[in-house]
Design brief:
By secondary structure, the chain is mainly α. It has ten helices and two strands, in the order E-E-H-H-H-H-H-H-H-H-H-H. A two-stranded antiparallel sheet has the order 1-2. A hairpin with a 3-residue loop joins strand 1 and strand 2.
Length: about 270
């Protein structure tokens, strides 16, 4: 069999359908599924925007459009990125397992990993959409000024930063039932947002709780977002790289454990 070197046509599956077309169809199906589920799409997009207007604009310090406003925007971008990964993979995977859809997907003649890849792409899509809307609100209502480079870096951070939460959501989806998954994820999502310093400064938390903040993936991503919006300040490339490596390690751990769970329990 000829190898696929990037210059020839993509390998075909199931009656000559290319791998890229199968991925496109699976991604499109996942997009329509989530878009037609108001209980997913409305909170995922609406809650970060509502929280930002309330806490980032109305209750923020007067004229917080400078460094403070940029830091607030970075924190809410992280808050908005977390949900698509946690709910987009955690809840849907748990529901698919309960309904037997995951077993059906495995039996279909399509490339291995397409099911998960489609979910990852959709989580990235929703994360970028939320980030764009947050930056528009920040520029108009919050009077936050960002350069083109910072905007591009925040969008890239949103697309990649959702992956660790996809891994965590995938792990939760392997541990819970479909009906219990939303409640379990909410018990992790909101406390993590506060205890990691994303929505609440660590200085107002008890010291022993603040010391545990680096154990949350949201803390690591928040530090990376702060490095993007605080360019030229005390942040260094080495410090940002350290947070990125820690986050990559957490991501790998989540996916490895989730994969073993799926192999053993389906």
């Amino acid at each position: 069999m000829d190898s696929f070197d990037g210059t020839s046509k993509p390998p075909a599956f199931a009656g000559g359908v290319s791998m890229l077309r199968i991925l496109w169809l699976e991604t499109r199906t996942e997009y329509l599924r989530l878009l037609r589920t108001p209980s997913f799409s409305v909170p995922i997009i609406g809650f970060p925007l509502l929280f930002y207007v309330l806490f980032g604009v109305m209750l923020s310090p007067p004229r917080a459009g400078g460094a403070v406003g940029q830091a607030i925007l970075g924190a809410f971008v992280v808050f908005g990125v977390m949900a698509p990964g946690l709910f987009g993979l955690g809840v849907t995977l748990a529901i698919d397992r309960d309904r037997g859809l995951l077993a059906l997907k495995r039996a279909l003649p399509m490339p291995a990993g397409t099911y998960l890849a489609a979910k990852l792409i959709m989580a990235m899509f929703f994360a970028v959409i939320v980030s764009v809307l947050l930056m528009l609100l920040a520029a108009t209502l919050g009077h936050v000024a960002l350069g083109i480079l910072e905007v591009c870096e925040l969008l890239a951070l949103s697309a990649l930063g959702v992956v660790p939460f996809c891994g965590l959501g995938l792990l939760i989806g392997t541990l819970t039932k479909g009906q219990a998954a939303p409640a379990v994820i909410n018990l992790i999502y909101l406390p993590m947002s506060f205890l990691s310093g994303v929505l609440l400064p660590l200085t107002v938390l008890p010291r022993f709780i603040a010391r545990l903040a680096p154990a949350w993936p949201a803390y690591q991503l928040d530090q990376l977002a702060l490095a993007v919006v605080s360019r030229g300040s005390e942040w260094s490339a080495g410090l940002a790289a350290r947070h990125a490596l820690v986050l990559a390690g957490m991501t790998a751990l989540f996916f490895v454990i989730a994969r073993r769970r799926l192999e053993r329990h389906g």
